[in-house]
Write a structure and sequence with these properties.
Layout: H1 8-11, H2 15-31, H3 36-92, H4 100-107, H5 114-125, H6 130-151, E1 161-162, E2 165-166, H7 168-172, H8 174-193, H9 201-215, H10 220-229, H11 237-262, H12 267-294, H13 297-300, H14 307-310, H15 315-319, H16 321-339, H17 347-358
Helix pairs in contact: 2-3, 3-6, 4-8, 5-6, 5-11, 5-17, 6-8, 6-11, 9-11, 10-11, 11-12, 12-16, 12-17, 16-17
Length: 361
């Protein structure tokens, strides 16, 4: 029944009033002392009331969903500003060079910095303060931004727009972009090993080793190499998953692994956390692929519909839209089940993971 077929007097009823009238009609029908014409009229009224209740629930669910996404977006903005402030302050204490400007351009004031939010959210599981984690967040954003600056180069993905503005090589030239990206890569390790960062040497060494593995040929760089080599080739699902886990998943792996290190977790738990992070990264990449196909350039902040033009190997292309969405929803379900053991402490992380798949930017 369409909404317009619901009488005005039914539309004006609250949820409580609708339920009360339904109860009265059901009681009347149960007495079996009314004629057929009245029974049919009451039955029609029941359908109208139930449809109205359904509409009320849908409206309320939409309001809750919109409020929820607004709160997550607000959280992302607040966290991004914290990381930007940290990076500006850190760079201001270093000796000036010509590369500072393109470095800042590539890493500050742009992007969701969702990896930092994942780190902060994961830290809440173990009652870790943001002060303990902010160096990790800043280091991760440096690594992520270095990879984007290099990915955008003409010799790789050749993208001219990033985060709603010209890519770093368009703004400063290819040579400066390469050097700025490389400088952000090394800056990440400076941030972690900084003498003012209050972690013991053993923790810092473990974190540095993990970040190096996740950033180089066994992680982001190796994943990007596969991504380029897979263009215009038919690849199996396990090959694409492996490539995307390296290209995107490994840095998310580090995000949760580093939290485990700082929280003094045992090796087994750190590995579990890292694997969850890797799966979150794969989910993020799937969402990116969906946005490339159906997203808005204005909201996404970069050109869309380019994966198909470049012949990129994606799960979306291999499986088709319906099966790819099903794969993504099952992956999200799997991740959330693994976090269930942490109870309420994982609520913020869970809400961010839910946002990742539903996001529009």
């Amino acid at each position: 029944m369409k909404n317009e077929n619901i009488p005005a007097d039914v539309k004006s009823k609250s949820l409580k009033e609708s339920r009360e009238e339904i109860d009265r009609i059901l009681s009347k029908l149960e007495r079996q002392d009314i004629n057929l014409e009245d029974s049919l009229s009451d039955y029609q009224r029941l359908i109208q009331l139930n449809k109205h209740i359904d509409n009320l629930f849908k409206k309320r669910f939409k309001e809750i969903s919109e409020k929820k996404w607004f709160m997550i977006k607000k959280k992302l903005i607040i966290n991004a500003k914290k990381i930007d402030k940290f990076l500006i302050n850190f760079l201001s204490k270093q000796k000036h060079s010509l590369l500072i400007k393109p470095m800042k351009y590539g890493v500050i004031s742009g992007g969701k910095k969702i990896r930092s939010t994942i780190i902060f959210d994961s830290g809440k599981i173990f009652n870790l303060s943001e002060k303990k984690l902010i160096n990790i967040c800043a280091a991760v954003e440096c690594i992520h931004s270095y990879s984007l600056i290099h990915d955008d180069l003409p010799c790789m993905d050749n993208d001219k727009v990033r985060r709603g503005k010209p890519s770093t090589h368009i703004k400063f030239g290819e040579a400066s972009a390469v050097l700025a990206g490389s400088s952000l890569l090394t800056l990440a390790f400076e941030i972690i090993t900084d003498k003012h960062y209050s972690l013991n040497t053993e923790m810092k060494n473990e974190i540095v080793k993990s970040l190096a593995k996740c950033s180089g040929h066994t992680g982001i760089a190796g994943g990007q190499e596969l991504d380029l080599k897979f263009e215009n080739k038919k690849k199996k699902i396990n090959e694409i998953v492996k490539m995307q886990k390296k290209k995107t998943g490994k840095l998310f792996n580090f995000c949760l692994y580093a939290v485990g290190v700082i929280a003094n977790q045992k090796d087994k738990e750190k590995k579990v956390l890292g694997n969850i992070g890797e799966e979150i990264g794969l989910l993020f990449q799937l969402a990116d692929d969906f946005l490339d196909k159906k997203g808005s350039r204005k909201l996404v902040g970069k050109p869309v519909k380019k994966d198909n033009k470049k012949g990129k190997s994606t799960l979306l292309k291999l499986l088709g839209e319906k099966k790819a969405y099903l794969y993504a929803y099952n992956l999200r379900k799997k991740i959330l089940l693994k976090l269930k053991k942490h109870g309420k402490k994982a609520e913020d992380l869970i809400s961010t993971i839910e946002f990742i798949l539903e996001r529009k930017f």
